[in-house]
Amino acid sequence: GAVVSQHPSRVICKSGTSVKIECRSLDFQATTMFWYRQFPKKSLMLMATSNEGSKATYEQGVEKDKFLINHASLTLSTLTVTSAHPEDSSFYICSASGGGGPNQPQHFGDGTRLSIL
Amino acid sequence: QKEVEQNSGPLSVPEGAIASLNCTYSDRVSQSFFWYRQYSGKSPELIMSIYSNGDKEDGRFTAQLNKASQYVSLLIRDSQPSDSATYLCAQTGGGATNKLIFGTGTLLAVQP
Question: If you average pLDDT over residues B45-71, what whole number do you get?
Fold first, then answer.
């Protein structure tokens, strides 16, 4: 149980392109989804927390107009990197939690490796 | 600033030995702790969760929590080369959400 699907797994595109990443909870309802980015040999950096039906909460220093998050249903959240540039190249990972308070673990998708040329 | 600290390693152990991974945290309010394993180029995978003082065992893995000392550890018995990965310690950030605060991870290398 607790399977989170994320796609695409890899994106290579030109600078200026907008890229959408989908995160789906397959066998549970995810009241909260989280978006992280990770640079090589670094730990995960939380970008934003997304609750179904409400605006995402962004971490300090993360541009909300650059990284658009939509959590339209209990099983789907999307992250759109708008007008991506080479410095946005990174490993983006989503996670989902079924609610029930702080004891509930987060379950991670397989990640999306984004390369901007 | 809530922090979770881990030794970055690498921690090198021979195959069959016990690997001991340690983590300290600063937020006394947090009640929930997690260990994730992350293979190179992959996303984290939940290994263990622990909420109460003491030990929790699951197969070859044992998590230990000491809230008085603000210390959580993960023991891996009979270590295998396939256990070689980065192990991330995480705690919830407090409050109603289960937003996680991650340590920087410890790289474990099990030598065959």
Answer: 95
Contact A102/B32, CB-based, under 8 Å? yes
Distance from the B43 Cα atom to the nearest Cα atom in chain A, whole angstroms: 5
B59: left (phi over 0), alpha (psi -120 to 50) or beta: left
> For residue B95, what pLDDT is reported?
61
Chain-chain contact of B98 with A93 (C-beta, under 8 angstroms): no
Inter-chain touch B99–A34, beta carbons under 8 Å: yes
Of all helices (H) and strands (E), which one includes residue A24?
A: strand A19-25
Of B41, B49, B97, the CB nearest to A105: B49
Q: What is the pLDDT of residues B19-28, one digit of tens each?
A: 999 999 988 8
Q: CA-CA distance, A51 to A48, in Å (whole number)?
A: 10
Locate the chain A residue with the closest alpha carbon to B49. A105
Beta-carbon contacts of residue A71 (< 8 Å; ≥ 6 apart) = A33, A50, A51, A52, A53, A54, A56, A77, A78
Q: For the segment B33-50, what is each residue's pLDDT rounded down to a tens digit?
A: 999 999 999 999 999 999
- In sequence order, which residues have a C-beta less than 8 Å from that of residue A52 and are 6 or more positions away? A30, A31, A32, A71, A72, A73, A74
Please compute the mean of the pLDDT values over residues A30-35 and round it to a whole number. 91
Token couple for B62: 């044992």
Q: Cα distance from A102 to chain B (closest Cα, Å)?
A: 4
